[in-house]
């Protein structure tokens, strides 16, 4: 087991810079709002709001800090890896599935297998489909399509399929079960999701890097979201393709040897993983007890605790995934992540964890709690008039002339501009970077990147209040002890009718109307400030339904739209053929030649 | 919203019960990954005896080591 290593200078400088940016911005916002509130006499609500602004601004600036650091550095391959060096380690590619469409999932496996076959190392890679499917009809289809996959890829003794009768421990338990039965047969394991797709050369390069540096326990790639068709999905896909590399670069600079694990599109050293990552069930019932839900962050922390390096190699290409196509599916996934991140409050004090990993847990918790700060700020602002001291125009005894409170409106406007700047500036800077470095060509040119960036800013501003409400509800549900369970991911076209959208969001409409009405009655001066939040809430069913429809414009073009990777093109061809061909043979002896 | 490719009833119902059993057995034998057991010990995630002082460890404080 490798020992602990000191942090590099670049890591310390990056962390220091991000903290400094965040603290400066937060302190500036705090004092500006305090001065604004104190203009008519300081009261308790002014202090509460200033503290909420401080916390929210710190969080916003922390994200912006990632982008700024990412803009000033460039991804590069590790220096200790010889390009094209031969590899020898056996690797199991794990594909956990849970009530997924087997045709789509297995076509990805066929495409990845074909992509690996184009390298000299295909014989070193095995696929294992780890089914936790509970739906018997889907399980029956999995078996049939597995036989077809074997036949078409000649995959006997290379492509495996097993279904657990009890899905103990969910996805983490599924992977653990594989390692307990077969882990000793492999040096490395690439962990995927059902919607993951990876290029063969990328997988070979990941093994090469693991072999070049024996202290790496886990190496994470940056998956690119692909195949989005709906307006919501395409906006997310564009944002991911344009912004994520820069934010991930900033993260990679700050992480040191304690990088992230996002649960998929990553390679682990099997020995390191089995020695360090056996997850116990937490004491007590869900949502805070029971199986560890967001296991990936915990596994990264446990690897680092054991002295293994966990690294995000953001220079690696050829790593893909798919994302939710509409706001409701996004919110469902977010509900699961919310519970997982809040559950980390039980783990943040685990013995022996490195300080950065503890900070990452806190950061994850904050990412769900931070929207509550904004909501609290809005509610406190509506309530503020009840706490304000009465105006005293004659504060000096026996002085005959009135003293009017100074107009501090410009400070409130300045603060609003500053906060919007933290939200918008990183994305605008990234668009400029893409245009000046030529990266924009992959997105259809500079003009298209600029227009799409502006459209994405409008889009995210409109959807932010709706997402804030979903997140707030998730946090309240988890704190109230409600377990979200393990819902199946929706991976269809995602189109939602107005009725479906209304069913999922009518409560947001109600809160929007109540909030606006209360503001009009109690603090009418705040109505114009509240409209950008209240209007999207009131219109949320229309917004959710409209953004779930297929996009037919060139807006949000991303590189994979213009030039799909060969492995994506191969998967499309296989999927099209499978969907159009006859269903797989049901007679076993016709399905596979098995001696 | 279509979640999965449409499932043909014939696709599932077509095999007779015997054929389905054969199919299950075949998938089980063809699909079985290599048997190479590997222990995966459970890690400690929760502090066994929480105390206020243990919070200092979050900031890097450690018990003094015995000098040689």
UniProtKB/TrEMBL annotation, chain A:
GO terms for molecular function: hexosyltransferase activity. GO terms for cellular component: plasma membrane. Keywords: Cell inner membrane, Cell membrane, Glycosyltransferase, Membrane, Transferase, Transmembrane, Transmembrane helix. NCBIfam families: PRK05454.2-1 (NF003958), PRK05454.2-2 (NF003959), PRK05454.2-5 (NF003962). It comes from Cereibacter changlensis JA139. It holds the Pfam family Glyco_trans_2_3. The chain crosses the membrane at residues 12-38, 50-72, 365-389, 409-429, 449-470, 526-546. Belongs to the glycosyltransferase 2 family. OpgH subfamily. Residues 190-387 form the Glycosyltransferase 2-like domain. It is found in: Cell inner membrane. This is Glucans biosynthesis glucosyltransferase H. Coiled coil: none annotated. It is a multi-pass membrane protein. Pathway: Glycan metabolism; osmoregulated periplasmic glucan (OPG) biosynthesis.
UniProtKB/TrEMBL annotation, chain B:
It comes from the Bacteria. This is Uncharacterized protein. It comes from Cereibacter changlensis JA139.
């Amino acid at each position: 087991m490798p020992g602990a290593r000191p942090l590099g200078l670049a890591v310390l400088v990056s962390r220091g810079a991000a903290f400094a940016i965040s603290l400066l911005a937060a302190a500036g916002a705090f004092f500006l709002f305090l001065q604004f509130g104190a203009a008519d006499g300081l009261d308790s609500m002014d202090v509460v709001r200033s503290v909420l602004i401080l916390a929210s601004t710190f969080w916003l600036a922390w994200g912006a800090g990632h982008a700024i650091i990412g803009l000033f550095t460039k991804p590069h391959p590790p220096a200790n890896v010889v390009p094209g060096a031969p590899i020898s380690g056996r690797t199991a590619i794990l594909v956990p599935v849970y009530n997924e469409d087997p045709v789509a999932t297995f076509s990805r496996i066929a495409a990845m297998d074909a992509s690996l076959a184009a390298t000299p190392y295909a014989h070193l890679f095995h696929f294992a489909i780890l089914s936790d499917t509970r739906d018997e009809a889907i399980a029956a289809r999995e078996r049939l399509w597995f036989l077809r996959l074997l036949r078409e890829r000649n995959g006997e003794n290379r492509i495996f399929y097993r279904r657990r009768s009890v899905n103990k421990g969910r996805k983490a338990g599924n992977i653990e079960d594989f390692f307990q039965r077969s882990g000793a047969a492999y040096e490395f394991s690439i962990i995927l999701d059902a919607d993951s797709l990876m290029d063969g050369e990328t997988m070979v390069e990941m093994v090469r890097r693991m072999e070049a540096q024996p202290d790496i326990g886990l190496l994470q790639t940056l998956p690119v979201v692909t195949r989005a068709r709906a307006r919501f999905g395409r906006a997310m896909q564009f944002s991911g393709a344009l912004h994520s590399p820069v934010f991930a670069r900033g993260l990679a600079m700050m992480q040191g040897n304690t990088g992230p694990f996002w649960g998929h599109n990553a390679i682990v050293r099997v020995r390191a993983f089995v020695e360090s990552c056996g997850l116990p069930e937490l004491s007590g019932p869900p949502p805070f007890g029971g199986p560890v839900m967001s296991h990936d962050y915990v596994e990264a922390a446990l690897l680092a605790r054991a002295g293994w390096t966990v690294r995000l190699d953001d220079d690696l290409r050829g790593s893909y995934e798919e994302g939710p196509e509409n706001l409701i599916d996004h919110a469902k996934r977010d509900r699961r992540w919310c519970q997982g991140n809040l559950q980390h409050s039980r783990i943040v004090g685990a013995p022996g964890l490195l300080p950065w990993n503890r900070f990452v847990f806190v950061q994850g918790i904050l990412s769900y709690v931070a929207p509550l700060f904004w909501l609290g700020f809005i509610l406190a602002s509506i309530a503020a008039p009840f706490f304000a001291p009465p105006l005293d125009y004659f504060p000096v005894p026996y002085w005959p002339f009135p003293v009017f409170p100074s107009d501090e409106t410009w400070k409130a406007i300045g603060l609003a501009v500053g906060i919007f700047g933290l939200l918008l500036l990183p994305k605008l800077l990234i668009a400029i970077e893409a245009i000046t470095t030529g990266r924009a060509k992959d997105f259809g040119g500079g003009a298209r990147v600029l227009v799409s960036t502006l459209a994405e800013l409008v889009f995210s501003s409109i959807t932010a209040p709706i997402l804030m409400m979903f997140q707030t509800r998730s946090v309240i549900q988890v704190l109230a002890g409600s377990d979200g369970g393990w819902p199946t991911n929706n991976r269809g076209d995602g189109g939602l009718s107005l009725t479906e959208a209304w069913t999922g969001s009518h409560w947001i409409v109600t809160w929007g109307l109540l909030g606006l009405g209360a503001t009009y009655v109690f603090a009418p001066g705040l109505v114009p400030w509240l409209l950008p939040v209240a209007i999207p809430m009131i219109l949320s069913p229309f917004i959710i339904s409209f953004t779930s429809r297929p996009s037919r414009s060139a807006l949000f073009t991303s590189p994979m739209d213009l030039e799909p990777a060969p492995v994506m093109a191969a998967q499309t061809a296989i999927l099209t053929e499978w969907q159009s061909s006859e269903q797989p043979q049901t007679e076993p002896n016709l399905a596979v030649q098995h001696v | 919203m279509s979640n999965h490719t449409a499932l043909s009833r014939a696709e599932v119902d077509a095999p007779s019960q015997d054929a389905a059993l054969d199919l299950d057995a075949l998938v089980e034998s063809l699909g079985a990954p290599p048997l190479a057991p590997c222990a995966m010990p459970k890690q400690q995630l929760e502090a066994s005896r929480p105390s206020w002082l243990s919070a200092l460890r979050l900031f890097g404080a450690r018990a003094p080591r015995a000098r040689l």
